[in-house]
Specification:
heterodimer; A: about 300 residues; alpha/beta; Rossmann fold; two-stranded parallel ribbon; about 40% helix; B: about 280 residues; Glycerol-3-phosphate (1)-acyltransferase; seven-stranded mixed sheet; 10 helices; 9 strands; about 35% helix; globular
Chain lengths: ~300, ~280
Amino acid sequence: MKVLVTGISSAIGRMLTRRLLAAGWQVIGIDRRPWPDAPEGVEVFRADIRKRPAEEVFRTHRPKAVIHMATVSHFTTSFEERYRINLGGTQAVFDNCERYGVEQAIFVGRHTVYGAMPDAPMYHSEEDPPLGGSTFPELADLVAADLYAGSALWRMPELDTVVLRIVYTLGPSRYGNLARFLETGRVPTVMGFDPLYQFIHEEDAAQAIAVALQQRLRGIYNVAGPQPVPLSLLIKISGGKAWPIPEPLYNAFLGRFGLPKLPAGAINHIKHPVVLDASAFREATDYTHQFDEVQTMNAFRWA
Amino acid sequence: MVQIVDGRVAEQLARLDVPFNRYGYDAYGTSRAYISRWATIAYWFYENYFRVTTHRVHLIPDAGRGMLIGNHSGAIAIDGSMVLTSLIMEHDPPRMAHGMVEKFAYKQPFLSNMFNRLGQLTGVPGNAERILNDERLLLVFPEGARGTGKLYKDRYRMERFGTGFMRLALSTGTPIIPFAFIGGEEAIPQVMHINWLAKVLGTPYIPVTPYLAPLPLPVKCDIYYGEPMHFEGDGTEADEVILSYVDLVKRRVAELMREGLEARGDALPPQTWESP
């Protein structure tokens, strides 16, 4: 059985691939980035998911399942480009799924679609509205991609679609948005706010995606691992130092004094929590995480 | 940082019914260290300043979900603090109660953090439901900010009760434990509110006392717990039905208030009811 992974060269893409191979899948991938030491038997096509060569991969290889994780965030990519990749790319992938008889599609999304607000319930379930675009405008493209992928559930009823909203991943690869925020060592926090942060070990995230594929899940699911911890504790245990900045000065400080640069809207996600209730996924799949919050923070720190 | 934690407080907190992780946080961000420090201060006020007497604390169940419903008073959550303290310090085993906080508090620096670490969550239905389904105690003042913002001349006249708590109690099968808090209205006698300042600061009200600052006077306070009340239903009942249930709870709270007020030689002022 053949599965196509878009964005296969990412850290999680590689971890996922090893798990899929171990489970007996034949894995092919599409990515603009190379994966020079890909395991034997894994074919990686250097292509843009929106372009014709990517469609050719669907046409000639006829994968049974597709795992779409070729989305980008504000850390690496400009606004217009993000819309093209995240929304345009997701549209192209689902169109190809329909056109070339794919049976199962997994969209790997993010927990930030719910948005960070002071007046939201602390735990979000799948029914909660995705307000990420209003609290953090730089997330609007990812919110749109998430909802677009979810619409495949009724637009393409013969395709088993699952949208996974996964919390921040953290681990020895030191990749991902949370790792980028933490890795400078000087972490700009907002004075007087210490929200809960929820993260999952990257190997656990890869396992959750593999489980969704194996069990042919259908629907929209939150994916989380251990219980959340306050940001201050996360910074401390992962080896950094919190720099509390008064809110009115916050955006002026970013990108200076060795602090990371963040978009203006990011401040809501540093003041308020986005925490998921992932019980539906656990009940549907019997999935459990292997790494608790302390092991995950240490895995990141000592990598 | 010097941590001064009262010995008896530490003893009670070691037995608290909250699953803390190895750093002392639970899944809602409640912190054992914060509660220890807070409870040390609160317990001093409880014992020496407000000289609180808690009556019938044994009526609180030892485990499992429950909704504490009482009259609101005291402008700056003295009632909530003292009720939480009574449950931690007087009840055996000690129990943690999660209150529902005005939304404005979670927008403020430091306040937002403090309330979160003390397990007092934003007052939205989703949080309340989760706390109950986790078999914890929920503390609700159905008068909301209407209740704490009462002027001295209106003391012990309950404001309108919201109905959300009753629908939630029915849908989650939660017993309601009524209580009365006596003394809060005299501790912070509010003679007026500065509405324009409240608007500027985004708070529900800014209270003014005869001595200007909304600081509490050392008034003796009493907490009266009542027998748990059980209601049958699933929370989808018509407003009329819900209002009649709410009224039963409000009348029970009024009875407890009457008991407390008469014990100190006062009378219960006339009340308004939700359904005739």
